[in-house]
Amino acid sequence: MKKLRHLYLVLTGLLIIFSLHAQGEKATIYRINIKENIGSNTWIYLQNGLHEAILKDARAVLLHMNTYGGGVLEADSMRTAILNFPLPVYVFIDNNAASAGALISIACDSIFMRNSASIGAATVVDGSDGAKAPDKYQSYMRGIMRATAESHGKVVTIEQGDTIAKWKRDPVVAEAMVDERIVVPGYADSTQILTLTASQAMELGYCDGIAESVHEVIVTFLGYPDYKLETYNPTFYDMIRGFLTNGVVQALLIMFIIGGIYFELHSPGIGFPTAIAITAAILYFTPLYLTGYAQNWEVLLFVLGLILIVFELFVVPGFGVTGIVGIIFVFLALVLALVGNIRFNFEGLPATELFRAVMIVLGGMGMSVGLVLFLSSRIGKPGILNRVALHADQEGYVSVPMEPAAMVGRTGTAATVLRPSGKVTVDGVYYDAVSVKGFVEKGDAVLVKRYENFQLYVERK
Length: 461
Fold this sequence. Notes:
It is built from 14 helices and 15 strands. It is α/β, with parallel strands linked by helices. It folds into three domains: 24-234, 2-enoyl-CoA Hydratase, Chain A, domain 1 (Alpha-Beta Complex); 237-386, no CATH class; 392-460, CATH 2.40.50.140. The strands form three sheets. Strands 1, 2, 3, 4, 5, 8, 9 and 10 form an eight-stranded mixed sheet that branches. Strands 11-12-13-15-14 form a five-stranded mixed β-barrel. The protein has a two-stranded antiparallel ribbon with strand order 6-7.
């Protein structure tokens, strides 16, 4: 009996100690600063911050926002992450939540604003000149703004004995922030985009409280008088990764990858174009791989596509199935590396993310074509690219040299590696030449097949 009593006292003491410890434990609130234009950087900050909040067992996440807007696609990804996050996410608008910032704010569970803050003005504009984008873009923005407002559901109230269900955040108000044609009586007529002050947002249900500091929000509105505030601090690596995952930078990297490969295939040896292409490919895939977007098989798919293209150009005559499959593989690898998917599983993938990836890759490919055409037109001409071309030693002025046409059918020697272009000698005279089939090593005997565009076309004899 004494043993049972002692055991009871011990268990009671442990419960009291545990209870006191639990009561003394502070609630962790995790803060993520959104204080720059919405883009790849802020998207990375949010992703990392939400992940850290889970690891630190936070009770809630608080976005500390002051932004004039930014990229719609990144904002859409951010609002989707917030809507799907298991912990409550709140936002404290510290002066500005314009455009993309308004979309992200509306996705949060509660909105708190400084007395001098504003929210709204979400019209889509052209990033180059600030002009209003075409209506199809406005329609899309209206749709996601409305859907985000509706995602918070309705609140049931009783008015004069009648049960009435009202939207927690009126979708019409969200749409009026995009389209000036939507009227919100007393706040915006048909000539202006809706932008709300803190007090106006309170009246329309788009603000849950006015505060002057993060501390006031946490203590007064979230109800945590004793809390621990953790803040996500981006590292230098985060900033570099954000820069490299910017859509414009990714398109430029694709341009350098394709342009470098093209010029390497048309020049002897392995040199500067290869270094450019490899460096661009590393900068393109590495941040995506480390983020978890690019998988091993996507990188291998890209390499396999390049191998098939080279094989088609230098082994298989003409250009057929092998080359086409290679191009498809390269395109798919570049696109799929930009979107989150596990072995072609696109469930839950926003259409905007896939659209963004395709546009980035197509844009990069288009720029690479422009780069190739521009540099090809400048090679050999006066300027920095003059020495890139292979020049034959000539004396005097030759307007249209036709002597090489007489070389057809004759035998010469490769003076340089032809991959596929280079130089050959015929009767001791140097000529620019292109290999018709495969690479030709320096010193190999060659047969002149034809003369076009001031070049000899040869094949290994």
